[in-house]
Amino acid sequence: MAGHGIPDDYLDGYADILAAASRTGRRLTREELESRRALGERAADAGHGLRALVGAHLAATRDHWPHGRPDAADSVLAAAEQAVDALAEGYERAQRLAVRQEEAARREFIDDLLYGRSDLGLLAERAERFGLRLSYEHAVAVAQDRHGYEEGHAVPREVERALIGRFGDRSILLTTKDGRLVCVAPGDQAEVLTFFAKQAYAATDDCRVAIGRPRPGPGGVVQSYEEALGALDLAERLELDAPVLRAADLLVYPVLTRDRQAMAELVLHTLGPLREARGGAGPLLDTLTAYFDSGCVAAETARALALSVRALTYRLERIHKLTGANPADPVHRYTLQTAVIGARLLDWPDTQF
């Protein structure tokens, strides 16, 4: 065993290199440099530290120092410098390859985890390597902004540092997918995803975060992820202003759209007559949207639409006349509001059906 805990075979040929440099003053040959690089790669693959490897070679250099020959000292020192540089190059090359392989394995695992494309049993085994125990419940939060996120960029790194600083190692997985920032956390630790949402929102100017419900088992991550994506899609179509959306609070919308044909019929039957208005259905549909969003408060609706209360009242009366449904009547209000939600979800009247 060589010094610094490095096996002797990692010094193979080094004494001969130093001896040749001492005799002739020559530099290392291409073959000798490549042999040092190969030894550096082997050491990295075997888990030996670079400091220990360099230390062992420096110790060997001292053991083979040409005492009493000042003219050879510079040559030996130059050879040692070349050898150590080649060792470090090979060591770093192996480390870079290992990092790339680890990144590829992590990306493949994340794709399989979020899309459910792998055998669930094998997926659960692979998950433990990345700190997840898929037999438990997990929930997923997804952050999205107009610029998008890429792995290794400033925002993901900033959010990851904040999460680690706050929670340490709590089986949290942070990654990017399709330009979004994704956080997977244990389902019983809601504070993790809440903190993630705050950090993601604070790190960008235009960010929205959706949080899926906790789901059990290896397939639970996929379900929670899809719920979060669905919440983001709903927020865009419904023009929701909330920066943080929880899928549990939006369950009514998937129910409303589960039967698309029935919803389309409700929209056309209830709101179709608005197309007869001057300017089409758009302005009156916007009026209903603002009216319901304000809690049916006329003054607040008028302010939101930059109208006078009198002008708003005229529009509501016009809607009543065209549709036969009075927005101010609780009996009619539910049907109208449901139809308005359906119109926003189905992009009516821009989309015809």
TrEMBL record:
Domain of life: Bacteria
Boundaries of every PucR C-terminal helix-turn-helix domain copy: 284-340
Pfam families named among the record's database cross-references: GGDEF_2 (PF17853), HTH_30 (PF13556)
InterPro entries: CdaR-like_regulators (IPR051448), CdaR_GGDEF (IPR041522), PucR_C-HTH_dom (IPR025736), PucR_C-HTH_sf (IPR042070)
Residues annotated as domain CdaR GGDEF-like: 116-234
Entry's family note: Belongs to the CdaR family.
Entry protein name: Regulator
